[in-house]
Amino acid sequence: MDSQVCGDGRLLDLIDEGWRKEKLPIDDILVPVAELPDPESDNGDSHMTLKELEQKWNNLALGTLSENHLHSPTPKMEFPNTGECCALDDCKQLDFLPFKCDHCHLTFCKDHFNAESHKCSKSLSDVISSKEPSSNFVCSKQDCKETSLTEMLCYKCKIHFCLKHRYHGCFETNDDETLKKLKKWQIPKKQFAQAKAIVDQEVSDSLKKSKNTAMANKVQLMRVKSVAVGPKNVPMNERCYFLVYPPVTILSKVTSTPKGIYMNKNWTIGKIIDSTADIFKIPNNNNTSTTNKLHLFNHNTGECICDKMDTPLTDLFENSLLIDGQCIILEYSDNASVDLTLYK
Question: Taking the complete model, does pTM exceed 0.90, yes or no?
Answer without folding.
Answer: no
